[in-house]
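Q: How would the C-alpha coordinates look for this protein?
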Amino acid sequence: MTLTGPFKQILTMDNLPLKGHLSDDQLQIIPDAGILHEHGKILEIEKFEKLKQRNPDAIVEHLDDDSVALPGMIDVHTHICWAGSRTTDYTLRLSGKSYLEIAESGGGIWNTVEKTRNASLIELAELTAQRAQKLLKLGFTTIEVKSGYGLSVEQELKILEAIKLADRNSTADLISTCLAAHILPEDFDGDEEDYLQQLIEKLLPEIKKKNLSRRIDIFVEKGAFSILSAKNYLLKAKEHGFEIIIHGDQFTTGVAALANEVLALSIDHLEAADDEEIALLAAGNVIPVVLPGASIGLGEPFAPAHKLLDAGTSLVIASDWNPGSAPMGNLMTEAAILGAYEKLTMSEVLAALTCRAAGALGKTDRGVLKQGNIADIIAFKTKDYREILYRQGELRPEKVWKKGQIIK
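A: Here is the predicted structure in C-alpha coordinate form.
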Protein backbone atom coordinates (compact mmCIF):
# COMPACT_ATOMS: atom_id res chain seq x y z
CA MET A 1 0.00 0.00 0.00
CA THR A 2 1.41 3.38 -1.07
CA LEU A 3 0.43 6.92 -0.13
CA THR A 4 1.34 9.48 -2.78
CA GLY A 5 1.26 13.20 -2.01
CA PRO A 6 0.69 15.78 -0.84
CA PHE A 7 -0.80 17.41 -3.90
CA LYS A 8 -1.72 21.09 -3.69
CA GLN A 9 -4.87 20.22 -5.61
CA ILE A 10 -6.40 16.96 -6.82
CA LEU A 11 -8.96 17.31 -9.61
CA THR A 12 -10.81 14.03 -9.37
CA MET A 13 -13.09 14.68 -12.44
CA ASP A 14 -15.71 12.73 -10.52
CA ASN A 15 -19.47 13.31 -10.50
CA LEU A 16 -19.50 15.29 -13.75
CA PRO A 17 -22.39 14.72 -16.19
CA LEU A 18 -21.40 13.07 -19.45
CA LYS A 19 -23.48 15.46 -21.56
CA GLY A 20 -23.90 19.21 -21.88
CA HIS A 21 -21.99 22.24 -20.71
CA LEU A 22 -19.82 22.20 -17.59
CA SER A 23 -18.87 25.10 -15.36
CA ASP A 24 -15.58 25.20 -13.51
CA ASP A 25 -17.34 25.34 -10.14
CA GLN A 26 -18.59 21.79 -10.82
CA LEU A 27 -15.03 20.46 -10.54
CA GLN A 28 -14.32 18.44 -7.42
CA ILE A 29 -11.02 19.86 -6.16
CA ILE A 30 -9.46 18.37 -3.01
CA PRO A 31 -6.71 20.60 -1.55
CA ASP A 32 -3.58 19.36 0.24
CA ALA A 33 -4.58 15.80 -0.55
CA GLY A 34 -3.04 12.38 -1.08
CA ILE A 35 -3.89 9.25 -3.02
CA LEU A 36 -3.74 5.89 -1.28
CA HIS A 37 -3.28 3.04 -3.77
CA GLU A 38 -2.37 -0.63 -3.93
CA HIS A 39 -1.92 -3.19 -6.71
CA GLY A 40 -2.57 -0.49 -9.32
CA LYS A 41 -5.96 0.57 -7.88
CA ILE A 42 -7.01 3.65 -5.93
CA LEU A 43 -8.06 2.89 -2.35
CA GLU A 44 -8.87 6.39 -1.08
CA ILE A 45 -8.40 10.10 -1.79
CA GLU A 46 -8.39 12.40 1.22
CA LYS A 47 -6.35 15.06 3.00
CA PHE A 48 -2.75 13.84 2.95
CA GLU A 49 -2.17 14.12 6.71
CA LYS A 50 -5.40 12.27 7.50
CA LEU A 51 -4.43 9.40 5.20
CA LYS A 52 -0.94 9.30 6.72
CA GLN A 53 -2.32 9.09 10.26
CA ARG A 54 -4.90 6.43 9.39
CA ASN A 55 -2.45 4.28 7.41
CA PRO A 56 0.84 4.21 9.38
CA ASP A 57 2.07 1.12 7.52
CA ALA A 58 1.70 2.69 4.06
CA ILE A 59 4.81 3.43 2.04
CA VAL A 60 4.88 7.22 1.69
CA GLU A 61 5.79 8.58 -1.74
CA HIS A 62 6.35 12.16 -0.62
CA LEU A 63 6.17 15.01 -3.13
CA ASP A 64 8.30 18.01 -2.21
CA ASP A 65 7.03 20.46 -4.84
CA ASP A 66 3.57 21.94 -5.16
CA SER A 67 1.68 20.04 -7.81
CA VAL A 68 -1.79 19.49 -9.23
CA ALA A 69 -3.02 15.93 -9.88
CA LEU A 70 -5.41 14.83 -12.60
CA PRO A 71 -6.47 11.42 -13.89
CA GLY A 72 -4.21 10.07 -16.60
CA MET A 73 -5.56 11.56 -19.82
CA ILE A 74 -7.03 9.53 -22.67
CA ASP A 75 -6.50 10.02 -26.41
CA VAL A 76 -9.39 8.19 -28.05
CA HIS A 77 -8.46 8.70 -31.73
CA THR A 78 -4.96 8.20 -33.13
CA HIS A 79 -3.34 6.62 -36.19
CA ILE A 80 0.12 6.19 -34.69
CA CYS A 81 0.90 2.86 -36.38
CA TRP A 82 2.42 4.03 -39.66
CA ALA A 83 5.70 4.21 -41.57
CA GLY A 84 7.12 7.03 -43.67
CA SER A 85 6.33 10.74 -43.86
CA ARG A 86 3.89 13.01 -45.68
CA THR A 87 5.93 16.21 -45.83
CA THR A 88 5.12 16.53 -49.53
CA ASP A 89 1.40 16.59 -48.74
CA TYR A 90 1.91 19.33 -46.16
CA THR A 91 3.96 21.40 -48.59
CA LEU A 92 1.23 21.10 -51.23
CA ARG A 93 -1.41 22.19 -48.71
CA LEU A 94 0.62 25.28 -47.90
CA SER A 95 0.61 26.12 -51.62
CA GLY A 96 -3.19 25.94 -51.69
CA LYS A 97 -4.05 22.34 -52.61
CA SER A 98 -6.95 20.74 -50.72
CA TYR A 99 -6.83 17.41 -48.87
CA LEU A 100 -8.99 15.77 -51.54
CA GLU A 101 -6.96 17.26 -54.41
CA ILE A 102 -3.74 15.91 -52.91
CA ALA A 103 -5.28 12.46 -52.51
CA GLU A 104 -6.49 12.45 -56.12
CA SER A 105 -2.99 13.33 -57.34
CA GLY A 106 -1.25 10.38 -55.63
CA GLY A 107 -0.68 11.72 -52.13
CA GLY A 108 -2.90 11.29 -49.12
CA ILE A 109 -3.66 8.06 -47.33
CA TRP A 110 -2.48 5.83 -50.17
CA ASN A 111 1.02 7.30 -49.94
CA THR A 112 1.23 6.14 -46.32
CA VAL A 113 -0.32 2.78 -47.19
CA GLU A 114 2.52 1.99 -49.59
CA LYS A 115 5.18 2.88 -47.03
CA THR A 116 3.44 1.02 -44.22
CA ARG A 117 3.01 -2.11 -46.32
CA ASN A 118 6.76 -2.14 -46.93
CA ALA A 119 7.52 -1.98 -43.19
CA SER A 120 7.83 -5.16 -41.14
CA LEU A 121 5.61 -6.02 -38.21
CA ILE A 122 8.53 -5.42 -35.83
CA GLU A 123 9.32 -2.02 -37.38
CA LEU A 124 5.69 -0.92 -37.06
CA ALA A 125 5.49 -2.12 -33.46
CA GLU A 126 8.62 -0.16 -32.57
CA LEU A 127 7.38 3.02 -34.28
CA THR A 128 4.02 2.70 -32.54
CA ALA A 129 5.63 2.16 -29.13
CA GLN A 130 7.88 5.20 -29.65
CA ARG A 131 4.91 7.43 -30.43
CA ALA A 132 2.95 6.00 -27.52
CA GLN A 133 5.87 6.82 -25.23
CA LYS A 134 5.77 10.44 -26.41
CA LEU A 135 2.06 10.62 -25.60
CA LEU A 136 2.65 8.99 -22.22
CA LYS A 137 5.17 11.69 -21.31
CA LEU A 138 2.52 14.25 -22.24
CA GLY A 139 0.19 12.64 -19.71
CA PHE A 140 -1.83 10.24 -21.88
CA THR A 141 -1.95 6.90 -20.10
CA THR A 142 -4.57 5.32 -22.39
CA ILE A 143 -4.23 5.64 -26.18
CA GLU A 144 -6.51 4.36 -28.92
CA VAL A 145 -4.61 3.20 -32.04
CA LYS A 146 -6.22 2.56 -35.43
CA SER A 147 -5.11 0.33 -38.25
CA GLY A 148 -6.05 1.50 -41.74
CA TYR A 149 -2.73 1.87 -43.56
CA GLY A 150 -2.71 -1.74 -44.78
CA LEU A 151 -5.97 -1.92 -46.75
CA SER A 152 -5.84 -5.65 -47.40
CA VAL A 153 -6.70 -8.57 -45.17
CA GLU A 154 -3.07 -9.62 -44.77
CA GLN A 155 -1.72 -6.11 -44.21
CA GLU A 156 -4.45 -5.06 -41.81
CA LEU A 157 -3.80 -8.15 -39.71
CA LYS A 158 -0.10 -7.26 -39.70
CA ILE A 159 -0.86 -3.76 -38.42
CA LEU A 160 -3.21 -5.01 -35.72
CA GLU A 161 -0.57 -7.53 -34.64
CA ALA A 162 1.95 -4.66 -34.51
CA ILE A 163 -0.38 -2.65 -32.27
CA LYS A 164 -0.83 -5.66 -30.00
CA LEU A 165 2.95 -6.10 -29.77
CA ALA A 166 3.44 -2.38 -29.13
CA ASP A 167 0.88 -2.59 -26.32
CA ARG A 168 2.85 -5.41 -24.67
CA ASN A 169 6.00 -3.28 -24.89
CA SER A 170 4.41 0.00 -23.77
CA THR A 171 3.65 1.34 -20.34
CA ALA A 172 0.54 3.10 -21.61
CA ASP A 173 -2.56 1.05 -22.44
CA LEU A 174 -3.05 0.85 -26.22
CA ILE A 175 -6.63 0.18 -27.39
CA SER A 176 -6.74 -1.07 -30.98
CA THR A 177 -9.39 -0.20 -33.58
CA CYS A 178 -9.69 -1.81 -37.01
CA LEU A 179 -9.98 0.88 -39.70
CA ALA A 180 -9.52 -1.42 -42.70
CA ALA A 181 -12.38 0.62 -44.23
CA HIS A 182 -10.22 3.75 -44.44
CA ILE A 183 -10.41 4.20 -48.22
CA LEU A 184 -10.98 1.84 -51.14
CA PRO A 185 -7.52 0.45 -51.98
CA GLU A 186 -6.18 1.58 -55.33
CA ASP A 187 -5.00 -1.94 -56.09
CA PHE A 188 -8.32 -3.63 -55.28
CA ASP A 189 -10.16 -5.14 -58.26
CA GLY A 190 -13.75 -4.26 -57.40
CA ASP A 191 -16.00 -1.57 -55.96
CA GLU A 192 -16.51 -0.47 -52.36
CA GLU A 193 -19.20 -3.04 -51.69
CA ASP A 194 -16.91 -5.84 -52.92
CA TYR A 195 -14.09 -4.60 -50.70
CA LEU A 196 -16.25 -4.29 -47.59
CA GLN A 197 -17.70 -7.74 -48.21
CA GLN A 198 -14.19 -9.15 -48.31
CA LEU A 199 -13.49 -7.53 -44.95
CA ILE A 200 -16.69 -8.99 -43.53
CA GLU A 201 -15.96 -12.51 -44.76
CA LYS A 202 -12.18 -12.74 -44.32
CA LEU A 203 -10.90 -10.05 -41.96
CA LEU A 204 -13.45 -9.67 -39.17
CA PRO A 205 -13.50 -13.38 -38.26
CA GLU A 206 -9.68 -13.42 -38.04
CA ILE A 207 -9.68 -10.36 -35.80
CA LYS A 208 -12.12 -12.08 -33.45
CA LYS A 209 -10.21 -15.36 -33.57
CA LYS A 210 -6.88 -13.71 -32.75
CA ASN A 211 -8.39 -11.20 -30.31
CA LEU A 212 -6.77 -8.28 -32.13
CA SER A 213 -9.49 -5.68 -31.58
CA ARG A 214 -13.03 -5.19 -30.33
CA ARG A 215 -13.67 -2.00 -32.32
CA ILE A 216 -14.50 -1.38 -35.99
CA ASP A 217 -14.26 2.04 -37.68
CA ILE A 218 -15.09 3.30 -41.18
CA PHE A 219 -14.41 6.57 -43.00
CA VAL A 220 -17.68 7.81 -44.50
CA GLU A 221 -16.82 10.63 -46.89
CA LYS A 222 -16.34 11.62 -50.50
CA GLY A 223 -13.28 9.68 -51.65
CA ALA A 224 -13.84 7.04 -48.97
CA PHE A 225 -17.10 5.09 -48.36
CA SER A 226 -20.78 5.89 -48.95
CA ILE A 227 -23.40 5.94 -46.22
CA LEU A 228 -25.27 3.01 -47.75
CA SER A 229 -22.21 0.74 -48.00
CA ALA A 230 -21.05 1.79 -44.54
CA LYS A 231 -24.41 0.88 -42.99
CA ASN A 232 -24.26 -2.71 -44.22
CA TYR A 233 -20.63 -3.07 -43.13
CA LEU A 234 -21.24 -1.68 -39.66
CA LEU A 235 -24.32 -3.79 -39.05
CA LYS A 236 -22.39 -6.91 -40.06
CA ALA A 237 -19.58 -5.87 -37.70
CA LYS A 238 -22.09 -5.53 -34.88
CA GLU A 239 -23.34 -9.05 -35.63
CA HIS A 240 -19.74 -10.20 -35.04
CA GLY A 241 -19.84 -8.49 -31.63
CA PHE A 242 -17.71 -5.42 -32.42
CA GLU A 243 -18.19 -1.91 -31.09
CA ILE A 244 -18.80 0.63 -33.86
CA ILE A 245 -17.02 3.95 -34.48
CA ILE A 246 -17.42 6.24 -37.50
CA HIS A 247 -15.17 8.85 -39.13
CA GLY A 248 -17.88 11.27 -40.21
CA ASP A 249 -18.82 14.82 -41.23
CA GLN A 250 -15.22 15.84 -41.87
CA PHE A 251 -15.76 17.55 -45.23
CA THR A 252 -19.43 16.82 -46.00
CA THR A 253 -22.47 16.13 -43.82
CA GLY A 254 -25.06 13.39 -43.51
CA VAL A 255 -23.46 10.80 -41.24
CA ALA A 256 -25.17 11.58 -37.92
CA ALA A 257 -28.34 9.68 -38.86
CA LEU A 258 -26.25 6.63 -39.75
CA ALA A 259 -24.36 6.84 -36.45
CA ASN A 260 -27.64 6.92 -34.53
CA GLU A 261 -29.17 4.09 -36.56
CA VAL A 262 -26.29 1.65 -36.06
CA LEU A 263 -25.82 2.73 -32.42
CA ALA A 264 -22.24 3.80 -32.95
CA LEU A 265 -20.23 4.45 -29.80
CA SER A 266 -18.79 7.65 -31.28
CA ILE A 267 -18.65 9.76 -34.42
CA ASP A 268 -15.26 11.36 -34.89
CA HIS A 269 -14.34 14.58 -36.78
CA LEU A 270 -17.54 16.65 -37.27
CA GLU A 271 -15.76 19.69 -38.72
CA ALA A 272 -18.56 20.03 -41.28
CA ALA A 273 -21.44 19.30 -38.89
CA ASP A 274 -24.32 21.75 -39.30
CA ASP A 275 -27.33 22.47 -37.10
CA GLU A 276 -29.28 19.52 -38.52
CA GLU A 277 -26.46 17.09 -37.79
CA ILE A 278 -26.01 18.47 -34.28
CA ALA A 279 -29.75 18.11 -33.57
CA LEU A 280 -29.62 14.48 -34.69
CA LEU A 281 -26.68 13.76 -32.41
CA ALA A 282 -28.41 15.47 -29.50
CA ALA A 283 -31.40 13.15 -29.99
CA GLY A 284 -29.23 10.03 -29.61
CA ASN A 285 -26.39 8.75 -27.47
CA VAL A 286 -23.52 8.77 -29.97
CA ILE A 287 -20.50 10.55 -28.46
CA PRO A 288 -19.07 13.38 -30.59
CA VAL A 289 -15.26 13.25 -30.78
CA VAL A 290 -13.69 16.39 -32.22
CA LEU A 291 -10.16 16.45 -33.64
CA PRO A 292 -8.56 19.91 -33.56
CA GLY A 293 -5.23 18.49 -34.73
CA ALA A 294 -6.79 17.77 -38.13
CA SER A 295 -8.17 21.30 -38.36
CA ILE A 296 -4.76 22.75 -37.55
CA GLY A 297 -2.95 20.40 -39.94
CA LEU A 298 -5.36 21.03 -42.81
CA GLY A 299 -6.01 24.71 -42.17
CA GLU A 300 -9.74 23.96 -41.88
CA PRO A 301 -12.38 25.26 -39.40
CA PHE A 302 -12.68 23.57 -36.03
CA ALA A 303 -15.62 21.29 -35.28
CA PRO A 304 -18.51 23.21 -33.67
CA ALA A 305 -17.70 22.05 -30.15
CA HIS A 306 -19.61 24.81 -28.36
CA LYS A 307 -22.75 24.21 -30.43
CA LEU A 308 -22.58 20.51 -29.67
CA LEU A 309 -22.59 21.25 -25.94
CA ASP A 310 -25.35 23.84 -26.42
CA ALA A 311 -27.46 21.05 -27.93
CA GLY A 312 -26.79 18.81 -24.94
CA THR A 313 -24.40 16.26 -26.41
CA SER A 314 -21.24 14.95 -24.82
CA LEU A 315 -17.88 16.21 -26.10
CA VAL A 316 -14.55 14.41 -26.35
CA ILE A 317 -11.34 15.89 -27.79
CA ALA A 318 -8.71 13.65 -29.42
CA SER A 319 -5.53 14.21 -31.41
CA ASP A 320 -6.09 12.28 -34.67
CA TRP A 321 -2.28 12.01 -34.69
CA ASN A 322 -1.39 10.77 -38.18
CA PRO A 323 1.27 11.50 -40.80
CA GLY A 324 -1.04 13.37 -43.18
CA SER A 325 -3.70 15.64 -41.75
CA ALA A 326 -2.65 15.83 -38.07
CA PRO A 327 1.12 15.45 -37.69
CA MET A 328 1.54 17.42 -34.43
CA GLY A 329 0.58 14.75 -31.90
CA ASN A 330 0.40 17.17 -28.95
CA LEU A 331 -3.21 16.90 -27.80
CA MET A 332 -2.87 19.26 -24.83
CA THR A 333 -1.84 22.10 -27.14
CA GLU A 334 -4.55 21.19 -29.66
CA ALA A 335 -7.24 21.04 -26.95
CA ALA A 336 -6.16 24.36 -25.43
CA ILE A 337 -6.32 26.07 -28.82
CA LEU A 338 -9.74 24.56 -29.54
CA GLY A 339 -10.96 25.73 -26.14
CA ALA A 340 -9.85 29.28 -26.86
CA TYR A 341 -11.51 29.40 -30.28
CA GLU A 342 -14.71 27.60 -29.25
CA LYS A 343 -15.03 29.29 -25.84
CA LEU A 344 -14.99 26.06 -23.87
CA THR A 345 -14.61 26.20 -20.11
CA MET A 346 -11.57 24.62 -18.52
CA SER A 347 -13.78 21.91 -17.03
CA GLU A 348 -15.22 21.11 -20.48
CA VAL A 349 -11.76 20.71 -22.00
CA LEU A 350 -10.37 18.66 -19.12
CA ALA A 351 -13.46 16.43 -19.03
CA ALA A 352 -13.10 15.89 -22.79
CA LEU A 353 -9.62 14.47 -22.13
CA THR A 354 -10.49 12.37 -19.08
CA CYS A 355 -13.92 11.26 -17.81
CA ARG A 356 -15.83 11.90 -21.04
CA ALA A 357 -13.00 10.41 -23.10
CA ALA A 358 -13.27 7.21 -21.08
CA GLY A 359 -16.89 6.96 -22.19
CA ALA A 360 -15.87 7.12 -25.85
CA LEU A 361 -13.80 3.97 -25.26
CA GLY A 362 -16.47 2.27 -23.19
CA LYS A 363 -14.15 2.30 -20.16
CA THR A 364 -15.47 2.83 -16.65
CA ASP A 365 -12.25 2.15 -14.72
CA ARG A 366 -10.28 5.28 -15.70
CA GLY A 367 -10.63 8.97 -16.48
CA VAL A 368 -11.71 9.67 -12.89
CA LEU A 369 -9.67 9.56 -9.69
CA LYS A 370 -11.86 7.62 -7.27
CA GLN A 371 -11.88 4.47 -5.17
CA GLY A 372 -11.63 1.32 -7.28
CA ASN A 373 -10.36 2.97 -10.44
CA ILE A 374 -6.95 2.37 -11.99
CA ALA A 375 -4.28 4.51 -10.35
CA ASP A 376 -3.41 6.38 -13.53
CA ILE A 377 -2.30 9.78 -12.23
CA ILE A 378 -0.52 12.77 -13.72
CA ALA A 379 0.95 15.70 -11.78
CA PHE A 380 1.71 19.19 -13.07
CA LYS A 381 4.19 21.38 -11.21
CA THR A 382 1.87 24.25 -10.31
CA LYS A 383 -0.36 25.41 -7.45
CA ASP A 384 -3.32 26.20 -9.68
CA TYR A 385 -4.93 23.75 -12.14
CA ARG A 386 -5.88 26.65 -14.42
CA GLU A 387 -2.23 27.04 -15.40
CA ILE A 388 -2.43 23.76 -17.34
CA LEU A 389 -4.61 25.05 -20.18
CA TYR A 390 -3.48 28.65 -19.77
CA ARG A 391 0.03 27.54 -20.78
CA GLN A 392 -1.41 25.78 -23.87
CA GLY A 393 0.70 22.64 -23.73
CA GLU A 394 3.93 24.27 -22.56
CA LEU A 395 3.30 23.09 -18.98
CA ARG A 396 3.77 19.34 -19.18
CA PRO A 397 3.33 16.70 -16.49
CA GLU A 398 6.18 16.64 -14.02
CA LYS A 399 5.28 13.10 -12.98
CA VAL A 400 3.16 10.28 -14.46
CA TRP A 401 1.96 7.15 -12.66
CA LYS A 402 0.59 4.17 -14.56
CA LYS A 403 -1.34 1.75 -12.37
CA GLY A 404 0.33 3.28 -9.35
CA GLN A 405 3.90 2.94 -10.67
CA ILE A 406 5.76 6.16 -11.33
CA ILE A 407 7.26 6.22 -14.79
CA LYS A 408 8.38 9.84 -15.03
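The two ends are 20 Å apart (CA to CA).

The CA atoms of residues 148 and 179 lie 4 Å apart.

Upvote if useful.
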